[in-house]
Amino acid sequence: MIEQATLARLATLLQVDAASLQAQPLPGGLSNRGCLLRYGSEKWAVRLPLVSDAGETARAGETLSLESERRVLAVAADAKLAPEVVVCDDETGALVTRYVESATSLTAERVRERVNIDRIAVTLRRLHSLPAPTGISAFRPTELARACIDASRGPPGARRNLADERRVWGPDFRDLAQAYEAAFKPMALCHNDLVAANILDDGQLWLVDFEYAVLADPVLDLAGLAGLNGFGPAHCHRLLDAYYGPERVPISLAQLNQVIRLVRLMAFFWALAHGGDGPADELKGFAAAMAAVLR
């Protein structure tokens, strides 16, 4: 839940009475937490950093600065692809956007529906055509592989599950990262975290949580969508045709599958590197689920 001091600061920034500002939790991601703020008829969605048991802000991986993400969201909001940013507060790490009334988050099952594959392909084409604001780094998976593999080892003596997979898949991660960089160049603004929960639907599709946005080849988002939402070969064919157009697809299904595996390995090592050692740790649970897919 949101802390009272944070709630009071947000009330000040929103220029409303703190005593009348109501907050309720929203389903959050693995790297942040969300709240719905209500003030009369006004509603805002708030994303906040995770907080450790010691009360300190906890980060799960390298993300954009809040200001860089605000610039990305401003561009996406102008294109009606993301909700409007209302407050961006470095002090609390809060990102406040307009609440999209009646919107629901997609599920992996809904993402795989033919009609939604087509709709998401159109949305991604629009995103990838937008000018990238300053502060967005090029996607360099070789650097990411090195950092994630090193971090996933943990300090000497640390208890880590999935150690066998980590040793076997590390070289695979590095090889696929090198192959990606040889084949694809950073050319478009990519979301880079297309889990189903980051796609909202209220009759049109909205993208949220751009904290991992990068400059990359569009194939990164196509592979991310497929790899994080359980696509099979038929879904992948549909996605490629819907995004590029039939007869104009520039990559093979085998090439897409390589990038899908790269995305899944990134997700596995990222979660393993930033998860805790407790049995209930959500990131560790996500790593285990991703390992099952990779197997």
Walkthrough of the structure:
This protein has 295 residues and is an alpha+beta fold. The protein has two domains: 95 residues, Phosphorylase Kinase, domain 1; 191 residues, Aminoglycoside phosphotransferase (APH), C-terminal lobe (Aminoglycoside 3'-phosphotransferase, Chain: A, domain 2), CATH 3.90.1200. Helix content is 45%, strand content 17%. The chain contains ten helices and eleven strands. Strands 1, 2, 3, 4, 5 and 6 form a six-stranded antiparallel β-sheet that branches. A three-stranded antiparallel β-sheet has the order 7-9-10, covered by helices on one side. α5 packs antiparallel against α6, α5 packs parallel to α9 and α6 packs across α9. The two termini are 36 Å apart. About 3% of the residues have low confidence.
For the record, the count of structural domains works out to 2
Q: Largest sheet, if any? A: 6 strands, antiparallel
What's the shape? globular
CATH class call of the largest domain: Alpha Beta
CATH superfamily annotation of the largest domain: Aminoglycoside phosphotransferase (APH), C-terminal lobe
Using the 3D structure, state the CATH architecture of the largest domain: Alpha-Beta Complex
Radius of gyration: 19 Å
Structural class: alpha+beta
CATH fold-type name of the largest domain: Aminoglycoside 3'-phosphotransferase, Chain: A, domain 2
Mean pLDDT: 89
Continuous helix count: 10
**Uncertain segments:** 53-60
Specify the helix fraction band: 40-55%
Distance between the termini: 36 Å
Strand content is: 15-25%
What's the total count of β strands? Answer: 11
What is the element string, with H for helices and E for strands?
Answer: HEEEEHEEEHHHHEEEEHHHH
